[in-house]
Design goal:
With 165 residues, this protein is α+β, with helices and mostly antiparallel strands. It is built from four helices and ten strands. A ten-stranded mixed β-sheet has the order 1-10-9-4-3-2-6-7-8-5. The longest helix has 11 residues, at 131-141. The radius of gyration is 17 Å and the shape is globular. 24% of the residues are buried.
Length: 165
């Protein structure tokens, strides 16, 4: 399954911190599908991998996530992302929820939509080093898979050019 890149993702659903393992976080929402005689559940996971800084509540009641690479994201990057200065604010994700702005510095942010109920899959399988187990999990459980990517701002490109010249 290919990962579809998105510049932003938004949901009105409530996501709850479901798991954290090493430097990864998993927020999950479960939505019942009432159209069937026996209700099935669709889950959506918001996954941060390689997180080194976060300022998030444990519950998000609707949110939008982006990588704006704006001035605030640059400040967060300078304060908390010392090991990754190749592309300023590249790993800063912004989550807006209920009129507030939160930040996460992480190597990846994925959104996975599942068509089966997720009992206890989560981070232990997603972060699995053995590719075959991970591929089996994705092919049997994941309906859609997204990755948040931002567009480079003019300031970011100017800073990169200064480093290279």
């Amino acid at each position: 399954m290919d990962i579809k890149p998105l510049s932003k993702y938004a949901s009105r659903r409530t996501f709850v911190l479901h798991a954290s393992h090493q430097c990864s976080l998993l927020f999950r929402t479960v939505k019942p599908n009432h159209g069937d005689l026996f209700p099935r559940y669709e889950t959506i996971d918001l996954i941060f991998l390689g997180a080194i800084y976060l300022e998030l509540p444990t519950q998000l009641n609707g949110f939008k996530i982006t990588k704006p690479r704006d001035e605030i994201a640059h400040q967060i990057s300078q304060l908390h992302d010392h090991a990754h200065n190749y592309y300023p604010a590249e790993r800063v994700y912004v989550i807006e929820s209920q009129g507030r702005r939160f930040h996460v510095v992480a190597s990846n942010c994925w959104i996975q939509e599942h068509n089966k109920p997720m009992i206890d899959a989560g981070l232990s399988v997603i972060g699995e080093n053995e590719q075959s187990l991970r591929d089996a999990y994705i092919s049997s459980h994941v309906k859609r898979w997204y990755r948040i990517e931002g567009k480079a701002s003019r300031k970011c490109l100017q800073e990169l050019l200064k480093k290279w010249v």
